[in-house]
Amino acid sequence: QILSRVKPAAVGGEIPRGEDADLWLAYCAFHLDCPPDVWVYLACTLFFLGLYKEGEVSTGEAIDIYKRILLDFLALNVYPALCYYKLDYYDVSQEVLAVYLQSVPDSTIALNLKACNHFRLYNGKAAETELKNLIDISSSSFEFAKELIRHNLVVFRSGEGALQVLPALIDVITEARLNLVIYYLRQDDVQESYQLIKDLEPTTPQEYILKGVVNAALGQEMGSSNYLKIAQQFFQLVGGSASECDTIPGSQCMASCFFLLRQFDDVLIYLNSVMSYFYNDDAFNFNYAQAKLLVCFLFVSQIFLLIQNDKNKSDYVYLSWLARCYIMNQKARLAWELYMKMETSAESFSLLQLIANDCYKMGQFYHSAEGFDVLERLNPNPEYWEGKRGACVGIFQQILAMLPLLRNTGNPQVEYIIRILKKWAKDNRVSL
After folding, report:
1. pLDDT interval class at 84 (50, 70, 90)
2. Nearest to 376 by CA among 395, 349, 396
3. How would you label 157-181 residue by residue, b for 16+ Cβ within 10 Å and e otherwise?
4. CATH for 105-200?
5. Are 355 and 343 in contact (CB under 8 A)?
6. Would you say residue 4 has pLDDT above 50?
7. Residues 267, 255 contacting (CB under 8 angstroms)
8. 3 state SS of 143
9. Where in the cell does this protein reside (predicted)?
10. Residue 102 CA to chain centroid, in angstroms?
């Protein structure tokens, strides 16, 4: 309900009764002499509504009111700490939380939040160390704490034990469903992740983002533009929202949105804005390299080579883009070496086609001829013969173009080289 500031409660008309009367009484009481407790209640309400920035402001208002007697209201420190965590200010959250933990070192909520901050600031092992303090003090009767610990340990251990722990917690801890979806995505089980999330009505940025990721993965797996369109809309909703547009996840969402729209210049604008946070992140470098490659091929191979994950490095998308990058940078030999390391498969055949055709386009005729030669032996298609013939003619044209360059030099070795070339041409009845 929004109460008007201009309309009087009652002037000569019917006296408001029931709910209307209560609302007006509450409105008047609030503005006559607002009790300090109201700010605390307002902050809590805003927090649980997901309005973290507004909640932090209201919590700060409560702290200002209580600052003289804050020692008696230490729990107030937990609320801004929670808000700072939700706003990704993990170091600030730690500082605020430390005040409360000094006096209440066995607080379940505070210790769990401290562990979560350590996970975001450092790594899973650091978070697990903090969580051990909570494990030691939690009583067997405190069932929720036990479930919370089991859930967060799965997260801290990068999904280890997910199938044993998370399914039973889906209706107990909200994040359990989301983390199970993430687990299935990491296992490349896109269908299972979609089944888990398809009926979820998103209410938080994290839920919108995850639905976007799942739909994008499903769209790519099935070759469906409909799922890709849905994913693009989810990403745009988050990245364009007032609360997320200036955040790191918001920038990533806009980059994903433009990636699906194939507007790669815009992709790079958003990825460049957060690049310093993801220098050693394989997934980020993979996406950044693809976007950069589609805009300009120069030096992109350096970004691809930052990727260390073996699964990514054996992926055909990675290999094909790296090969194309090498070719565009006049390093066809490195592209050929990528092919030579592959096992015989449909993907190696596709890479061979890419190398043969792209090398031809870039005037790197020797490796193009090599590629078409192998293709012709694997499949006697007339197109492969035509490609090999054209590449071989291209090599010969380069030899002819080389002779005037040699003659421009007065070095005595020039005549020796030209003499050998002419002898070869004569023996093979080729006119130079």
Report:
1. confident
2. 349
3. eebeebeebbeebeeebebbbbbbb
4. 1.25.40
5. no
6. no
7. yes
8. helix
9. Cell projection, Cilium
10. 36
Domain ranges (residues) in the chain: 105-200, 217-313
Report DSSP state, residue 222: H
Query: Where do we find the tokens 């409360």?
Result: 100
Q: What is the pTM of this model?
A: 0.64
* Chain mean position to CA 234: 14
Confidence of residue 169 (pLDDT cuts 50, 70, 90): very high
Distances (CA, A) of 93 to 76, 136, 301: 13, 23, 39
Question: Is 70 in contact with 40 (CB distance < 8 Å)?
Answer: no
Residue 401 identity (one-letter amino acid): A
User: At 141, is the pLDDT very low, low, confident or very high (cuts 50, 70, 90)?
Assistant: very low
* Secondary structure (3-state) at 84: helix
Q: How confident is the model at residue 69 (pLDDT cuts 50, 70, 90)?
A: very low
| 397 and 403 Cβ atoms separated by less than 8 Å | no
Answer yes or no: is pLDDT of 338 > 70: yes
Residue 375, H or E segment: helix 365-378
- In this prediction, residue 216 has a pLDDT band, given cuts at 50, 70 and 90, of very high
Tokens of 52: 């973290």
Q: What is the distance between the alpha carbons of residues 165 and 154, in angstroms, rounded to a whole number? A: 8
